[in-house]
Amino acid sequence: MFSSLNDTVKLNDGLEMQRVGLGLYLVEEGSDTENSVRWAMEAGYRLVDTAAFYGNEGGVGKGIRQSGVPREQVFITTKLWNTDHGYESTIKSCEQSLRLLNTDYIDLYLIHWPGLNRDDRMATWEAFLKLRDQQKVRSVGVSNFKVHHIEDLIKTHGVVPAVDQVELHPFNAQRELRQYAESKDIVITSWGPLLHGHLNELPIEVEDIGKKYGKTKAQVVLRWHLQSGVTIIPKSIRRQRIIENADIFDFTLSDEDMSVIDGLNKDKRFGSDPDEMVFGFVNI
């Protein structure tokens, strides 16, 4: 069970995606991005997560090429930003991402936020399906979508997203969404799995759990995600931290340990509520 960075989960369209990847949220374009991607590839990562909004797709493409890992062995996720919702603008934004990444296809393309305009959201999803049909993207999914957003997509277009990437961590366990996603065969990916920079707010019990296994609090939390059935994209620009975040396959949390961390849920977000996030940069 969860033996290495090579572990994958099968998406509902048949594509295999790694359970652990490198997050690049707002990592600066240039050497920070290129080095992080290259170090991750050296450490065995094969999933890289970026977004148009992060402004570092070009660095991701360069880092992958510098690593020497063949493109077909790397799983690239990127996302459409809010101001590009709509059919034609989605097509143009995807083409721009393809150019910056210097690739012929994107493995997983996500709508970054649902936004408040339903018509634009539906037109965007229609464009996503077209891009998939054209093989410019292999899988289509969403990010920061609640149950009602996903239900609306399915009812309107009849296509279930492969992935929903959301804020999920011990303080915001997203239980209702996870149960729904399981019923629809949607993979949940956690952004900010290490509490989006608030790891120090965890109680001492988590550190004590780590001591039993010779692991850090961060490693315990990342392992909790995996054993909860959640895929993760922890972010770091530090080589040693990137390596440490991958060192979570040589121990298994006991049922008691899992219960302790499960009990920390407060339904607390550090980022924005998707029902309120429109087009601006709002605490994400």
Instruction: Measure the end-to-end span.
Output: 32 Å
Q: Give the radius of gyration.
A: 18 Å
Strand content: 5-15%
Number of strands: 10
Number of domains: 1
Strand order of the largest sheet: 3-4-5-6-7-8-9-10
Q: Main β-sheet: number of strands, strand sense, barrel status?
A: 8 strands, parallel
Structural class: alpha/beta
CATH-assigned fold name = TIM Barrel
How much helix, percentage-wise, in residues? 25-40%
Q: Would you identify the regions where 5 or more consecutive residues have pLDDT less than 50?
A: 280-284
Order of helices and strands: EEEHEHEHEHEHEHEHHEHH
CATH architecture field: Alpha-Beta Barrel
**CATH level 4 superfamily:** NADP-dependent oxidoreductase domain
Structure description:
This protein is α/β, with parallel strands linked by helices and 284 residues long. It has one domain (14-262): Alpha-Beta Barrel (TIM Barrel). Helix content is 40%, strand content 15%. The protein has ten helices and ten strands. The protein has helices at 31-43, 57-67, 87-101, 118-133, 147-157, 175-184, 204-213, 217-227, 239-246, 255-262, and strands spanning 8-10, 16-18, 22-23, 47-49, 75-80, 106-111, 137-143, 163-167, 187-191, 231-232.
In a nutshell, what does this entry contain?
By secondary structure, the chain is of the alpha/beta class. The protein is built from 10 helices and 10 strands.
